[in-house]
Amino acid sequence: MLARMARMNVFTKMTLLILLFLIPVLLLYTYSNQESVDIIEHEIQSSTTNRLSTFAESVESNIDQLSLYGISIGQDSSIQEFQLPDNQTAYEQVRLSGAILEKMNLYNAVSKWHSTLTLYFPRLQQVISTDYYSTIPYEETEFSEPFPQNWIYDDVANTFIWHTTEPTTAMDNPARARLITKVSFPAHQLVVLLDQNKQHNSGDPFLFHADSGVISNSTANWDLMGELENRLRQTSLQERGGFRAQLKETEYYVSYIRSQSLDWYYVDYVPMQQILSPVTSSRNLFYLSIGVLLAMSIVIIFAIYRSVQLPLLQLIKGTKRLSDGDFSTRLDDTKHNEFSQLFFRFNIMAQRIQELIENVYEEKLRRREATLKQLQSQINPHFLYNCLFYIKNMARMKNEEAVVAMSLNLGEYYRYITRSENDLATIREELNMATNYLKIQALRLERMHFTVDIPADILEQSVPRLTLQPIIENAIVHGLEPTGEHGEIIIRGVSEDGYYNIIVEDSGMGMTDEKLEQIRQDLTKPLTGHIGCGTWNIHQRLSFQFGEGSGLTFNHSPLGGVQVEIKWRHQSDGER
Question: Which residue range or ranges hold the HAMP domain (predicted)?
Fold first, then answer.
């Protein structure tokens, strides 16, 4: 990882540093914001639950007070006296009835809730009630069923009702009771308490029962209430608890507590987003700041890229092209900054290097030209020596025809090498000279014939003068003559893989593998006394003239002798 970072350029490192700076800040703030949201949500849940619990305790306190009065009223002396046997007169019963009713009204006057108290006397078949507007008859069938232990809701009258008996053991069989007390209060009383609670708190409390429905405050949102009621019906409710609900595309926290007296649920709910809005606004502002900072960072990075990275890349490309040998490379920059001065100095350096290389190259060309002239001058006396020795031998043998032919060939040779200052000759010219020489040798030996097969496109190619003749001479002198038998020389040309090839092979004595390998090695060494001057000279001239890969190659010939391949590289018009 460290090695990969070390190979990155400065621009990439700066970009990564900016990102590495922003990412931890973003992650830390996101974590901190989430922790704050979790704490606030927990506080919202606790506050909602505590507020609902306080409301539930207040309601339960009033209901318990009503229940306790319903139990204790049976111990009143007036009621006890009212239940005595028939020794009471009608006047006494009316007096006692009025006293009982007065006490019941007094309780209602001091009670926080407006309730209705009704006393049933099964033995007397009479009813006393604080409901002045209703005449309540005593009906035995009304108390045939056991009384429940809690308050029941009458959805027709919209009231909550609770019964108690004297004695209390008669709750399961009201027919055995001496006194039945009925306490009721209207559901509107709970609505008033819900309105008061909503006025002093931020919630929206209501009561819920799976069978009876909802009792809400007077300003409730019924659309939202109906959706929440359906959600409560689908939820398995415990004694108390809370849950989150998505209502009308808004998330709410719903808290509930079960009433032990009414068997209803006190429910309250608050919108989470409304309370979390300051935190959300702060979070959005931070993310906006990060976005602005990131945009500014991108602008700065882009400016650095244009002002620093692009000139550096241009400078790197220029130095690479310069190292590859393109000394004409120049850097252009229209901006006026430090890189302009650097580009200006680079261009001056490249120009001076180009001038120096051109001078060195010209000097190298002059030295190569001098070397070629020296090598050319070495081949002339070598060939002359062979020709003079041949004329001498033919004269001794009284072979005037051979002497004349050789003399004419020698004259043509010197005319060929002295008629032009050009050190190069076409293959056609070289082949004409070699053909004259072969004809002379054929006349001399009388047992040799030769074949020439060179394509027309090769005939017009140029090589150093006297490249072909010494090779043919060696094939005759060292290959065919020692055998004393009929001999053959084949000269053919091919062009392949970017090189021209002229192959000279004979059917002479041939050479061993060791001798061929020795000749191949000698061609690459400096000239010494035991190395053949002619072949070394030709190989060196081809190498100087046409570059690497050009020269002579020696191999065994299928004819039985030696195969010599003269090879030189294709050259464009500009190289010639």
Answer: 306-358
